[in-house]
Write a structure and sequence with these properties.
Radius of gyration: 16 Å
Structural class: alpha+beta
Strand content: 25-35%
Order of helices and strands: HHHEEEEEHHHHEEEE
CATH topology: 3-methyladenine DNA Glycosylase, Chain A
CATH architecture: Roll
CATH class: Alpha Beta
Length: 215
């Protein structure tokens, strides 16, 4: 079982990992760990569901209509945290992909909590019987952002490849998972494109847990 000490010592993935097509990055992110260090506490969870957004060629991408103050992070170096506020009540966490100026990204949709569950529950204001279902912590983009206390003021534009960052993505050597691919969730444009990647059979996958096409 992964410990907080072990998770905190894991190195962030290099920038070259993100300097690729978002579809490849999405597939390879599955099974990796999202890690947050906050003072002496560490939170870590396994990535089990993501969606790829392909930049200017993708009508569903924030960068489709061009560069704005809101989406500027996507146009910079790969491996940067892109956080936005949605529906007036929660944040969504993404990582930039592709070389400078290409504006691709990956949205994090669900995690499997491993380390720092008490801290995640506190951040989500979950206690008692509700905590019996750990899916309440990190199943869904808004939930996982809240569990890791990811906000736009705190984390937008953060370099996830830096060893000095308090938020990063790491590889702990977990066996490569079986991946299923489906259409993305909650969008109206390019909704049919198979760009949602999930760890097949994982109970923390959010929304419609259809298995899609395995690969």
């Amino acid at each position: 079982m992964l410990t907080a000490e072990e998770a905190g010592k894991l190195h962030p993935l290099p920038r070259s990992f993100y300097d690729r097509d978002p579809r490849k990055v999405s597939r390879d992110l599955l099974g990796k760990l999202l890690v947050r260090r906050d003072g002496k506490t560490v939170r870590a969870a396994r990535i089990v569901e993501v969606e790829a957004y392909l930049g200017r060629n993708d009508p569903a991408a924030h960068s489709f209509a061009g560069r704005t103050a809101r989406n500027a992070v996507l146009w910079g170096p790969p491996g940067m945290s892109y956080v936005y506020f949605i529906y007036g009540n929660h944040y969504c966490f993404n990582v930039s992909c592709l070389p400078d100026g290409k504006a691709g990204g990956v949205l994090f949709r669900a995690l499997e909590p491993l380390v720092g569950i008490a801290e995640m529950a506190r951040a989500r204001r979950i206690q008692g019987s509700e905590l019996a279902d750990l899916r309440q912590l990190t199943s869904g983009p808004g939930r996982l952002a809240e569990a890791f206390e990811i906000t736009r003021p705190r984390d937008n534009g953060k370099d996830l490849t830096s060893v000095d960052s308090d938020l990063w993505i790491a590889d702990d050597g977990w066996a490569r998972p079986r991946v299923a691919i489906t259409a993305r969730i909650g969008i109206t444009k390019a909704a049919e494109k198979p760009l949602r990647f999930i760890v097949s059979g994982n109970r923390f996958v959010s929304g419609r847990r259809m298995q899609g096409k395995s690969s």
